[in-house]
Design a protein that fits this description.
With about 200 residues, the protein is mainly alpha-helical. The chain has helices at about 5-15, 20-25, 35-40, 50-55, 60-75, 95, 100-110, 130-145, 145-160, 170-190. It contains ten helices and no strands. Helix 5 (about 60-75) packs parallel to helix 9 and helix 5 packs antiparallel against helix 10. It has one domain (about 30-190). Keywords: Signal.
Protein backbone atom coordinates (compact mmCIF):
# COMPACT_ATOMS: atom_id res chain seq x y z
CA UNK A 1 0.00 0.00 0.00
CA UNK A 2 1.40 3.39 -0.93
CA UNK A 3 2.30 5.96 1.72
CA UNK A 4 -0.33 8.59 0.66
CA UNK A 5 -3.15 6.03 0.93
CA UNK A 6 -1.97 4.88 4.37
CA UNK A 7 -1.79 8.51 5.55
CA UNK A 8 -5.27 9.22 4.18
CA UNK A 9 -6.69 6.16 5.94
CA UNK A 10 -4.98 7.16 9.18
CA UNK A 11 -6.38 10.69 8.87
CA UNK A 12 -9.93 9.38 8.31
CA UNK A 13 -9.73 7.02 11.29
CA UNK A 14 -8.34 9.81 13.50
CA UNK A 15 -11.10 12.21 12.44
CA UNK A 16 -13.83 9.63 13.04
CA UNK A 17 -12.45 8.77 16.47
CA UNK A 18 -11.83 12.39 17.47
CA UNK A 19 -15.49 13.27 18.17
CA UNK A 20 -16.34 12.76 21.83
CA UNK A 21 -19.91 13.63 22.81
CA UNK A 22 -19.07 14.25 26.47
CA UNK A 23 -16.24 16.57 25.45
CA UNK A 24 -18.54 18.49 23.08
CA UNK A 25 -21.29 18.78 25.69
CA UNK A 26 -18.76 20.26 28.11
CA UNK A 27 -18.32 23.11 25.61
CA UNK A 28 -21.97 24.18 26.04
CA UNK A 29 -21.53 27.46 27.89
CA UNK A 30 -23.55 30.59 28.32
CA UNK A 31 -21.71 33.86 27.75
CA UNK A 32 -23.05 37.12 29.12
CA UNK A 33 -25.88 38.38 26.89
CA UNK A 34 -26.33 42.11 26.31
CA UNK A 35 -29.71 43.87 26.32
CA UNK A 36 -29.46 44.27 22.53
CA UNK A 37 -28.82 40.54 22.12
CA UNK A 38 -31.74 39.76 24.43
CA UNK A 39 -34.02 41.82 22.21
CA UNK A 40 -32.62 40.06 19.13
CA UNK A 41 -33.14 36.68 20.77
CA UNK A 42 -36.73 37.59 21.54
CA UNK A 43 -37.29 38.06 17.80
CA UNK A 44 -37.21 41.87 17.89
CA UNK A 45 -40.86 41.76 18.85
CA UNK A 46 -40.57 43.42 22.21
CA UNK A 47 -38.44 46.28 23.46
CA UNK A 48 -38.13 45.18 27.07
CA UNK A 49 -36.64 42.22 28.86
CA UNK A 50 -39.00 39.52 30.08
CA UNK A 51 -37.25 36.68 31.88
CA UNK A 52 -40.37 34.53 31.65
CA UNK A 53 -40.44 34.79 27.84
CA UNK A 54 -36.69 34.24 27.52
CA UNK A 55 -36.87 31.17 29.75
CA UNK A 56 -39.54 29.57 27.58
CA UNK A 57 -37.88 30.34 24.27
CA UNK A 58 -34.63 28.29 24.57
CA UNK A 59 -36.56 25.10 25.26
CA UNK A 60 -38.41 24.83 21.94
CA UNK A 61 -35.43 26.35 20.12
CA UNK A 62 -33.03 23.62 21.24
CA UNK A 63 -35.69 20.97 20.56
CA UNK A 64 -36.27 22.33 17.06
CA UNK A 65 -32.56 22.43 16.21
CA UNK A 66 -32.16 18.84 17.43
CA UNK A 67 -35.14 17.58 15.44
CA UNK A 68 -33.93 19.37 12.31
CA UNK A 69 -30.56 17.64 12.60
CA UNK A 70 -32.06 14.26 13.48
CA UNK A 71 -34.45 14.29 10.53
CA UNK A 72 -31.63 15.48 8.27
CA UNK A 73 -29.35 12.63 9.42
CA UNK A 74 -32.15 10.14 8.68
CA UNK A 75 -33.06 11.82 5.36
CA UNK A 76 -36.65 12.24 6.55
CA UNK A 77 -37.04 15.90 5.54
CA UNK A 78 -37.35 18.89 7.82
CA UNK A 79 -39.91 19.02 10.60
CA UNK A 80 -42.50 21.79 10.52
CA UNK A 81 -41.51 24.88 12.51
CA UNK A 82 -44.46 24.16 14.78
CA UNK A 83 -46.70 21.12 15.03
CA UNK A 84 -50.45 21.47 14.77
CA UNK A 85 -51.15 20.20 18.31
CA UNK A 86 -49.44 18.43 21.19
CA UNK A 87 -49.79 14.73 21.77
CA UNK A 88 -47.90 12.49 24.13
CA UNK A 89 -46.04 9.94 22.03
CA UNK A 90 -45.58 6.70 23.90
CA UNK A 91 -46.68 4.05 21.41
CA UNK A 92 -46.93 0.45 22.53
CA UNK A 93 -44.78 -2.24 20.94
CA UNK A 94 -47.78 -3.61 19.04
CA UNK A 95 -48.43 -0.18 17.50
CA UNK A 96 -44.77 0.27 16.57
CA UNK A 97 -44.77 -3.16 14.92
CA UNK A 98 -47.42 -1.91 12.48
CA UNK A 99 -45.13 0.82 11.12
CA UNK A 100 -44.79 0.14 7.37
CA UNK A 101 -41.30 1.68 7.19
CA UNK A 102 -38.60 3.35 9.29
CA UNK A 103 -39.94 6.84 8.67
CA UNK A 104 -43.37 5.86 9.99
CA UNK A 105 -41.71 4.21 13.00
CA UNK A 106 -39.69 7.36 13.67
CA UNK A 107 -42.74 9.61 13.35
CA UNK A 108 -44.56 7.50 15.94
CA UNK A 109 -41.65 8.11 18.32
CA UNK A 110 -40.51 11.62 17.34
CA UNK A 111 -40.08 13.72 20.46
CA UNK A 112 -41.52 17.15 20.91
CA UNK A 113 -42.99 19.26 23.65
CA UNK A 114 -46.06 21.38 24.09
CA UNK A 115 -43.87 24.46 23.44
CA UNK A 116 -43.24 23.36 19.84
CA UNK A 117 -46.94 23.38 18.90
CA UNK A 118 -49.49 25.98 17.93
CA UNK A 119 -51.22 25.06 21.21
CA UNK A 120 -48.55 27.12 23.00
CA UNK A 121 -49.46 30.36 21.20
CA UNK A 122 -51.43 31.60 24.23
CA UNK A 123 -48.15 31.81 26.17
CA UNK A 124 -47.00 34.57 23.84
CA UNK A 125 -50.19 36.54 23.34
CA UNK A 126 -49.40 38.91 26.20
CA UNK A 127 -46.34 40.06 24.27
CA UNK A 128 -48.23 40.17 20.93
CA UNK A 129 -45.77 37.75 19.40
CA UNK A 130 -46.19 35.23 16.64
CA UNK A 131 -44.87 31.96 18.02
CA UNK A 132 -43.90 30.64 14.58
CA UNK A 133 -42.08 33.87 13.70
CA UNK A 134 -40.40 33.93 17.07
CA UNK A 135 -39.27 30.31 16.71
CA UNK A 136 -37.72 30.90 13.29
CA UNK A 137 -35.79 33.92 14.53
CA UNK A 138 -34.83 32.19 17.76
CA UNK A 139 -33.35 29.23 15.85
CA UNK A 140 -31.46 31.65 13.60
CA UNK A 141 -30.12 33.49 16.65
CA UNK A 142 -28.98 30.25 18.29
CA UNK A 143 -27.25 29.17 15.09
CA UNK A 144 -25.26 32.42 15.11
CA UNK A 145 -24.62 32.78 18.85
CA UNK A 146 -24.35 29.12 19.92
CA UNK A 147 -23.42 27.12 16.78
CA UNK A 148 -22.07 24.35 19.00
CA UNK A 149 -25.64 23.18 19.66
CA UNK A 150 -26.36 22.36 16.01
CA UNK A 151 -22.86 21.06 15.28
CA UNK A 152 -22.95 18.74 18.31
CA UNK A 153 -26.32 17.31 17.28
CA UNK A 154 -25.10 16.85 13.70
CA UNK A 155 -21.80 15.18 14.58
CA UNK A 156 -23.32 12.97 17.27
CA UNK A 157 -26.01 11.70 14.88
CA UNK A 158 -23.47 11.10 12.10
CA UNK A 159 -21.20 9.16 14.46
CA UNK A 160 -24.09 7.12 15.85
CA UNK A 161 -25.27 6.19 12.34
CA UNK A 162 -21.81 4.78 11.60
CA UNK A 163 -22.13 2.22 14.41
CA UNK A 164 -24.63 -0.04 12.69
CA UNK A 165 -27.44 -0.50 10.18
CA UNK A 166 -30.35 1.92 9.99
CA UNK A 167 -33.14 0.00 11.67
CA UNK A 168 -35.55 0.52 14.57
CA UNK A 169 -32.76 -0.12 17.11
CA UNK A 170 -30.69 2.61 15.47
CA UNK A 171 -33.63 5.02 15.64
CA UNK A 172 -33.97 4.26 19.37
CA UNK A 173 -30.24 4.88 19.82
CA UNK A 174 -30.47 8.20 17.93
CA UNK A 175 -33.40 9.26 20.12
CA UNK A 176 -31.32 8.58 23.24
CA UNK A 177 -28.49 10.72 21.82
CA UNK A 178 -31.03 13.47 21.02
CA UNK A 179 -32.30 13.37 24.62
CA UNK A 180 -28.81 13.50 26.09
CA UNK A 181 -27.87 16.60 24.09
CA UNK A 182 -31.25 18.21 24.77
CA UNK A 183 -30.94 17.77 28.54
CA UNK A 184 -27.48 19.36 28.57
CA UNK A 185 -28.61 22.17 26.28
CA UNK A 186 -31.61 22.95 28.44
CA UNK A 187 -29.51 22.87 31.60
CA UNK A 188 -27.11 25.46 30.17
CA UNK A 189 -29.21 27.68 27.91
CA UNK A 190 -32.32 27.91 30.08
CA UNK A 191 -30.15 30.17 32.21
CA UNK A 192 -30.68 32.85 29.57
CA UNK A 193 -33.43 34.03 31.93
CA UNK A 194 -30.71 35.00 34.42
CA UNK A 195 -28.81 37.24 31.99
Amino acid sequence: MSKPIVLLMLLLVTQAASFNLEHELAKFTLPRISSEETIEFCANNMMYQSGDFIFRTPIPTIETIGLQELRSALNFGQPPTLRRSYEIKDPKAATLATAPNLKAYYEMKEPGSFLTTFDAQFLYQDQHLSLENSMTQSVSYFDRKFPIVRSTYRQAFEDTLQTGPLDTDMIEQLLRVYDKILVKGLRVYSKLADC
